[in-house]
Write a structure and sequence with these properties.
The complex is a heterodimer. By secondary structure, chain A is of the alpha/beta class. Chain A has one domain (3-286): TIM Barrel, CATH 3.20.20.150. Chain A has helices spanning 23-29, 49-58, 80-93, 122-139, 161-172, 180-190, 194-200, 231-244, 260-286, and strands spanning 14-17, 35-39, 62-66, 98-101, 104-107, 110-116, 143-146, 175-179, 206-212, 215-216, 221-222, 248-252. In chain A, the strands form 3 sheets. In chain A, strands 1-2-3-4-7-8-9-12 form an 8-stranded parallel barrel, surrounded by 4 helices. The longest helix of chain A has 27 residues, at 260-286. The two termini of chain A are 24 Å apart. Chain B has a domain at 1-78. Chain B contains 11 helices and 5 strands; from the N terminus they run H-H-H-H-H-H-H-H-E-E-E-E-H-H-E-H. In chain B, the strands form 2 sheets. A 3-stranded antiparallel sheet of chain B has the order 2-3-4, sandwiched between helices. The mean pLDDT of chain B is 93. Chains A and B meet through helix 1, helix 2, helix 3, strand 5 and strand 6 of A and helix 1, helix 4 and helix 8 of B.
Chain lengths: 287, 301
């Protein structure tokens, strides 16, 4: 098995999140970017400006959809209407794969609009995998789930987060969007070794990697996506590439968004880390 | 083992409790003296572990803050004129009361204010006059959000008016307001005038920007009929309260045509992929597209 199964056979290199402060620059200057990631929910509309800009971007660039509202960990299942809207957008973007978060976010029709942590229990593994499998079947496009940043652990957890991610992705047969910044954030907040996490992830399922910055406080980290990537996160990225190969890599920058050039320059730093990781991988293989 | 469904119901219920303490102090919400309820603190202990760096209450509080910060930021962005007219204290009291009573039921934050007008009409936090005006204003400002994301169908050329099945462009919103809330955008402070009801149309103009105009009550009725879709004759099949003069009707149709309000009723195919106008890059206002994201909100401490 290879990650190609979870990327629709499409190989992408470095991308950045498509954000409104950059629309004008992208459409007028047409910079060379391998691909853009969009937040699906911002374009799940009937018309107007969101679809207008999306169509213009699609004329020139490859776009991959990334969601924040699927909530596959919901105990009461995923929302069918949401899936229909999502599929409609998939037809428009022709995204090679689609991703969302390994989280829950609503119950009894009440929405949190947050990526809430799932208790790491066997019941949650079964329910989440069932939701993901049904989603992937319905959307008819490979699906990848992303590990989220978390700010606490549930009482009654029956496994670690990395065991939960591996169990769910295996049982649902979906890909993984490995967010190495989220691993770092959670490792500080919840007290674990982030390298142990990266080393446990099934490499053949990793379809994409996210990198981002965050905000450090005295005793915890908040995943604000408003700073450059820090070195410990780059090192986790390097290790992930060493294990998974040249996986599509995307920089998220969502707060205090700087110029397009600054974001793109930050994203392209991943290329040097990727090369060094692949060289290490080749050395290990040769040895 | 606590069932997943119970955990999630209790967790979200805790997040939807009112903000307290330093979290509340870092928002615009009116200050209160009380800290977290014993119920909130007990729920944190029940649900969450003592972590390496954070206690259960601190962990739950981080999610609690994020829930409220996200909702408050979003709704304030969507109702700027209401905020100006109500003043900071009343506005934030209203928002808190509204969000406690009407938590989001949509996948997108863009719909967060969908019930605000109805809620405001019954909210006892302000006197009756303000209730009427603020409710009408909330309805108007929400219409601006609706037109932002509504479909656009192919407009009907004059030659096809008599033969085509007609419809009203989905991005044209018709409002019947009990007070002239459209005046508020020009006011520095809330200064209510005569409370005559008004009829408004709000739509996306050719440049993609929001536009609005007052319309005649009979024009309102005819446009509402156009929304139901049908042939031209069906607009006039039923009588209206007032019989409009032919010149009036002619002028209305001319305006509707110029504004591209009259559209071909879509087929299943065009509804799947509605017409999207591609305008010059510089002419488009891109704000408010990025409502949803995966990032957490910045905190003060």
């Amino acid at each position: 098995m290879s990650a190609a199964k979870f990327t629709g056979g499409v190989e992408l290199a470095t991308g950045i999140g498509l954000r409104s402060p950059h629309y004008g620059h992208i459409l007028s200057e047409k910079p060379t970017v391998d691909w853009f990631e969009i937040i699906s929910e911002n374009y799940m509309v009937e018309g107007g400006r969101p679809l207008e800009v999306l169509d213009l971007i699609l004329e020139q660039y490859r776009v991959v959809q990334h969601g924040v509202g699927l909530y596959p960990g919901n105990a009461d299942g995923v929302d069918r209407d949401h899936l229909k809207r999502l599929k409609r957008l998939v037809k428009r973007t022709k995204t090679p794969w689609i991703s969302d978060h390994l989280c829950w976010g609503s119950i009894d029709g009440s929405m949190s609009h947050d990526l809430l942590p799932i208790p790491f229990t066997f019941e949650a593994v079964r329910k989440t995998a069932e939701n993901l499998r049904m989603t992937q079947d319905f959307l008819e496009v490979p699906l990848a789930v992303e590990n989220v940043s978390s700010y606490g652990d549930f009482n009654g957890n029956e496994m670690t987060e990395w065991e939960f991610l591996a169990e769910v992705s295996e049982l649902a047969d979906v890909g993984i969007l490995l967010d190495v910044n989220n691993i770092y954030v959670s490792s500080i907040n919840n007290g674990f070794d982030p390298l142990e996490y990266v080393n446990f992830v099934p490499p053949e399922r990793v379809a994409q990697i996210h990198i981002a910055g965050h905000s450090r406080y005295e005793r915890f980290i908040i995943d604000t996506h408003d700073h450059p990537v820090i070195d410990p996160v780059w090192k986790l990225y390097e290790r992930a590439i060493e294990r998974c190969g040249a996986v599509a890599t995307l920089l998220e920058w969502d707060g205090k968004i700087p110029s397009f050039e600054e974001v793109w320059t930050e994203a392209r730093k991943s290329e040097a880390w990727r090369e060094s990781a692949l060289a290490k991988k080749a050395d290990h293989a040769a040895a | 083992m606590r069932p997943l469904e119970q955990t999630q119901r209790e967790f979200l219920s805790a997040l939807q409790m009112p903000l307290r303490g330093r979290s509340r102090a870092s928002t615009e919400l009116p200050p209160v003296d009380e800290g977290h309820s014993p119920e909130f603190l007990a729920k944190a202990e029940e649900l969450l572990k003592h972590g390496a760096n954070l206690s259960p209450a601190e962990s739950l509080e981080l999610y609690h803050r994020q829930y409220w910060f996200r909702l408050l930021d979003s709704i304030a962005e969507d109702f700027p004129v209401l905020r100006k007219m109500a003043g900071e204290e009343s506005f934030w009291s209203l928002m808190e009361a509204y969000l406690l009573d009407c938590p989001s039921a949509s996948f997108t934050l863009r719909h967060l204010g969908s019930r605000l007008a109805d809620f405001t009409a019954c909210w006892d936090g302000v006197e009756e006059v303000k209730r009427r005006w603020f409710s009408a204003l909330a309805r108007l400002e929400y219409a601006y959000m609706e037109i932002f994301e509504s479909a656009e169908w192919e407009s009907v050329p004059p030659a096809d008016l008599a033969t085509a099945e007609l419809g009203l462009q989905p991005h044209v919103k018709l409002l019947e307001l009990t007070v002239p809330a459209d005046l508020c955008a020009e006011w520095e402070n809330f200064s209510p005038e005569d409370e005559a009801p008004i009829y408004l149309a709000v739509w996306r103009d050719e440049s993609g920007r929001a536009a609005q105009c007052r319309i005649d009550p009979v024009e309102f009725v005819l446009l509402a009929r156009l929304r139901q879709r049908g042939m031209l004759a069906s607009l006039f099949a039923q009588p209206t309260d007032r019989e409009p003069a032919p010149e009036e009707v002619s002028e209305w149709f001319s305006n509707w045509q110029n504004r591209r309000w009259i559209a071909f009723a879509p087929t299943a195919e065009t509804e799947e992929f509605p017409i999207i106008q591609h305008r010059g890059v510089r002419d488009i206002d891109w704000s408010r597209i990025d409502k949803m994201g995966s990032q957490a909100r910045l905190m003060e401490d």
